[in-house]
Each structure stands twice: as C-alpha cells, then as structure tokens.
Write a structure and sequence with these properties.
- The chain is an alpha/beta fold.
- It folds into 3 domains: about 1-215, Aldolase class I (TIM Barrel); about 240-315 and about 465-490, Leucine Dehydrogenase, chain A, domain 1 (Rossmann fold, 3-Layer(aba) Sandwich); about 320-455, 3-Layer(aba) Sandwich (Rossmann fold), CATH 3.40.50.
- The chain contains 16 helices and 20 strands.
- The protein has helices at about 10-25, 40-45, 70-80, 120-130, 145-155, 170-180, 200-210, 235-245, 260-265, 295-300, 320-330, 355-365, 375-385, 445-450, 460-475, 480-495, and strands at about 1-5, 30, 55, 85-90, 105-110, 135-140, 160-165, 185-190, 220-225, 250-255, 270-275, 290, 305-310, 310-315, 345-350, 370-375, 390-395, 405, 430-435, 455.
- An 8-stranded parallel beta sheet has the order 7-6-5-4-3-2-1-8. A 6-stranded mixed beta sheet has the order 10-9-11-13-14-12. A 6-stranded parallel beta sheet has the order 17-16-15-18-19-20, with helices on both faces.
- It is elongated and about 80 Å long.
- The two termini are about 25 Å apart.
- The chain binds NADP nicotinamide-adenine-dinucleotide phosphate (NAP).
- The site of NADP nicotinamide-adenine-dinucleotide phosphate has 25 residues, from α12 and α15.
C-alpha cells in the first residue's frame, strides 16, 4: 500500500488534498501536522476523513517543522489518539510516554539523517519492544548495501516493518518495500514537495513502478548510474513491462564509481535479473563480465547486463540502435534511392564520448566512411584510432560536406535548447541529420535541419530502440515500441514543465 504524506500550512489545504487522494484510490495518508502554521485542529482533520490516516508531528531534528514545545507536541499526539486516529507515529524516545488507547495503532519510528546504523537488527528489536504495532525505520543510505540491509531486515521482521533508506541512493527501498513485506511505503503528494530526501511522488509510485502489484516473485531490473535521478529508462521500461504483462520492475540504482564493485557482487542478494549500465560505469563494468557480445568487445563499453548462474553477461545496444534508427529513416524514404544499398556514404560524428564511440563504430561496420570531431581533439583521435576512422579538428567540422551528420554531444539538450553544435548555413538538403539528444526530441539542430530540407532522425528513436533491444535480451519478447515512445515523450514533456 502507498501512504501519501500531506504537509500543508493550512487545514483546508490538508483536507482538500486528503479528499483528492482518497477520490483517486489512495487508501492511507500521513497527516504531517508539524507543517500546519496555525494551532492544529486535530478534530477538524479527522472528522469525516475520506480514508485512514497516520498522524505525525515531527521535530526539526527528525526532518520536521514543529517549533513549539515538546509538551505541546505530546498533547497533540495524545489528542490524535483520543480522537480515534487510525495510526500515530511515535518516535522511539517518546513511545513510552504516549500510552496505547482505543483502536489507534502505534507506529514506533526511528530516523537517522546521517547514516544507516551498522546494527539495524538491534535497533529494530529495541523499537519493537516499545509496544509497536508497526516499526518504522528511516535512515540515510550512503552505500547501496544499506538498501539491501534494510530490505533484508523488513523481510525477516515478525513485527510489520516499514524500512526505508533516504537520499537518492535509497530510492530502491521505497519502491521495493512492499515486495520485501512492508505494510506500506511513503510517497509525496507532489514530486517537487518532498518531505524526506529521496521521496518520490505517489502517482509515479503507482503508475510507473506499479507498487501495489509487486510481490516477492517480481523480478528486479534497473539502471545503474551516478547520477541516476534524471534517467528516463525507468519510465520507458516500466511502461513496456506493464503493457506486456510481465511480472518485473525496473528501478533506478544510484551507485557511485567506488561502490560499483560491491554493488555488483551483491547482485544475488536483491536478486538482480538485469541492468542497464550508464555513466560512469559503462567501461568499468567489463572486468566483472564473463561473457561479452561482439559489440562490447569491439567498442570496449557495455550498456546492458544479464545475471545468470554462470556469471554476468554484457551487451551493447547503443551501436545497433543508432544504426537501426538511421536505416529505418532511410527505408522510409527508399523511393529516393534505387541502388538498394546504404545511401549514406560519409558521416561526421560530433563528440567523442560513449555515444559517439558506439555510433562511429556502428556506422563504420556498415561500411560508411566515418569522421569524428570533438572539442577535445585527443578524444576524437583516440576514437578514430580505435574505430579505424578519421578525425578532424572541431573548428574544421563545417569545412567538408557529409551525407550524414550525427550529434553525439549534449549540445541542445534541455535546458540549453537554444544551442546547436552545427551551424545551419552548412546544412544541405541531401544530408541525413541524426541528433542523439532525446530531450527535447526536436532540438534546434533537428529544427534547422528540417528547415534546410534534410531528412532527420531524433534521439527518441535511438533511445527507444536501444531500450527495446535490452527488453528483448531480458524478457525474450519484443516490447511495444509505441508504448515506450509515448512514455518517453510524456516524461520529457513533464520534465520541461517542472
Ligand atoms: P560523454 O561521454 O560525456 O561525451 C560527451 C561528448 O560531448 C564529449 O566528446 C564532450 O567533449 C562533448 N561535449 C560536451 N559538451 C560540449 C559542448 N558544449 N560543445 C562541444 N562538445 C561538447 O557523453 P555520452 O554518453 O557520449 O552522451 C552524449 C550525448 O548523447 C548525451 O548527452 C545524450 O543526449 C546522447 N545519448 C543519447 C542516447 C540515445 O539513446 N538517444 C544514448 C546515449 C547518449 P569534451 O570531451 O571536450 O568534454
């Protein structure tokens, strides 16, 4: 069950949000009365409540906004019990001072905004002895292993336990809490109004992660990166999983480079079935993989892992996706070409990072004469040597015409949407212009290319294709590309509004 925390300054806003949530199927809310800016009227908040509530009044030391005396806080919590609140949240140091009464259930909680304590079991044992109906532990995750320790504690507990790790390293515990056996997880009313670090919105929890459908049998996939919060892969993969009716979830794992080793060695504890791998792990991951497909060996980077009984297997879906995207664009207009072959003979790739390397490699494999150019000349030279193609200086990129232009830099990406890596005066109608940037889909480069009469391929096309190949590797079936495309477009549109 998803418990949505409501923290508003005025009673009428709390009541309105409560009603809105209940009308939308939410079955439990947390009323954060410490957010209310006037004298708290518990009776008013509980009377005619449209769904059950947890009453919580948090001090500043536990991330709350309560500024009055501790006596006043205890009185408020006792009043909530007398008024028949469904649950009250009592921190471990006050649990013994607020006696059980009536039907109100007691959530005995502990918060640690600095760390996840080494001995969680001992802490849990102590909280459970404080006449707890539910134990709640919320601690800061500084290491991905903190998440595992927390989920394992939840799973092993006899007393119902909500165990959550805070911060963006801790996000997986919020999504997987119910799968581990927690009675509920916490989410916010709105994405941008978080009450604890790493919280996510209830709609995202319900619609993207399908929290209530996850069970102990649900297979766990995800994207591992640092940072990871901006990744749109969870939106795309979870939408395709839901549409295909597959019992699996795709979770964002923020794992710093120095913790990657341990994260991978703990894969069986989650257990992880498959991962997308992105910055900064794409190259480092290779030393842990027993099997590498041909593209991984050639490119020297992987973006997809599977976990099997005989070790980790690595795949690279970026290069194939880039080439497939170009081929599809060409096929759409094949009446223009009549020799049946790849009509693109020469290509200029802008950038010399992971995406540029995969694209350059994929195009070269198709027999295209590839040139790379990068702001940092040495990086372009290195890729040229590895791929077996040419490199030109960044300042010379407009000098020669090419059949195909590929932007593999972040130039033009949201929020810098007024930038382009290539001057429009040098675009020619015969060029095929491919921008790997997918947010926004119509970058300035794409718009100017269309205006110049060029054929265009967007980063959305490549993103969906690389995700679709991953999906096939993991689940053995093709996803619905339209579902992925629409999920990506919805997510990029809402990111721009935020
Ligand atoms: P990366 O490894 O960080 O490489 C970025 C490259 O862009 C580097 O060569 C960098 O040059 C260059 N660059 C950065 N800012 C620049 C600027 N202002 N002017 C000129 N060059 C600049 O990143 P990556 O993984 O290759 O990803 C690059 C882009 O590809 C991403 O931003 C993303 O939009 C896109 N991408 C799309 C997909 C997809 O599926 N559609 C997949 C992967 C990536 P320096 O070395 O000089 O910094």
């Amino acid at each position: 069950m998803i418990c949505v925390s409501i923290g508003r300054g005025r009673h009428r806003h709390v009541i309105a949000e409560h009603k809105h949530l209940a009308d939308n199927g939410v079955r439990l809310v947390e009323l954060r009365v410490d957010y209310i800016q006037r004298a708290v009227q518990i009776k008013r908040l509980l009377k005619d409540r449209p769904c059950p509530v947890i009453v919580t009044c948090r001090r500043a030391s536990e991330g709350g906004r309560w500024e009055q005396s501790e006596e006043a806080r205890l009185l408020l919590l006792r009043t909530a019990i007398v008024e028949g609140a469904d649950y009250v949240d009592l921190e471990d140091d006050i649990a013994a001072k607020v006696p059980r009464y009536g039907k109100t259930k007691r959530i005995v909680s502990h918060h640690d905004f600095g760390k996840t304590p080494a001995d969680l079991t001992l802490l849990h044992k102590r909280l459970a002895t404080l006449d707890a109906d539910i134990v709640k532990i919320a601690t800061m995750a500084n290491h991905p292993t903190d998440n595992l320790r927390m989920l394992e504690l939840v799973h092993a507990s006899k007393v119902p336990t909500v165990g959550i790790c805070m911060g963006d390293i801790g996000t997986p515990t919020r999504i997987l809490a119910g799968r581990a056996g927690a009675p509920f997880t916490f989410a916010t009313f709105q994405e941008d109004r978080v009450m604890a670090p790493g919280q996510i919105g209830w709609r995202q929890m319900r619609d993207v992660y399908r929290y209530d459908a996850l069970t102990a049998k649900t297979r766990v996939y995800g994207v591992v990166a640092d940072p990871v919060a901006h990744s749109l892969s969870p939106v795309v993969h979870n939408a395709a999983l839901a549409a295909a009716g597959i019992d699996a979830v795709y979770v964002p794992f923020r794992v710093p480079a120095e913790q990657f080793d341990q994260f991978l060695s703990n894969a069986p504890r989650w257990p992880l079935a498959g991962l997308s791998v992105t910055i900064p792990h794409k190259e480092a991951v290779l030393r842990y993989c027993r099997h590498q497909d041909d593209l991984v060996k050639a490119i020297g980077a992987a973006n997809t892992l599977t976990f099997g009984p005989d070790g980790i297997a690595a795949f690279n879906t970026d290069a194939t996706a880039a080439v497939e995207s170009l081929e599809a664009a060409i096929a759409e207009q094949e009446q223009v070409f009549n020799d049946g072959g790849m009509p693109v003979k020469t290509a200029l790739v802008l950038g010399a990072g992971g995406a540029a390397r995969a694209v350059a490699f994929g195009l070269k494999r198709k027999g295209i004469d590839v040139t790379v150019t990068s702001r940092t000349a040495e990086r372009a030279d290195k890729i040229a040597a590895e791929v077996g193609c040419k490199a030109v200086a960044w300042n010379s990129r407009h000098r020669l015409p090419y059949d195909c232009l590929v932007n593999a830099t972040p130039v033009g990406m949201h929020p810098n949407v007024d930038e382009t890596p290539y001057e429009k005066d040098h675009l020619r109608p015969y060029m095929l212009v491919f921008d790997t940037v997918y947010n926004p889909e119509s970058t300035l480069l794409i718009k100017e290319a269309r205006a110049a009469g060029c054929r265009t391929v967007t980063g959305v096309e490549m993103f969906v294709r690389q995700a679709a190949i991953q999906f096939r590797i993991w689940h053995g079936v093709d996803p619905d590309p339209q579902v992925m495309r629409e999920a990506l477009k919805r997510a990029t549109a809402s990111a721009k509004l935020a």
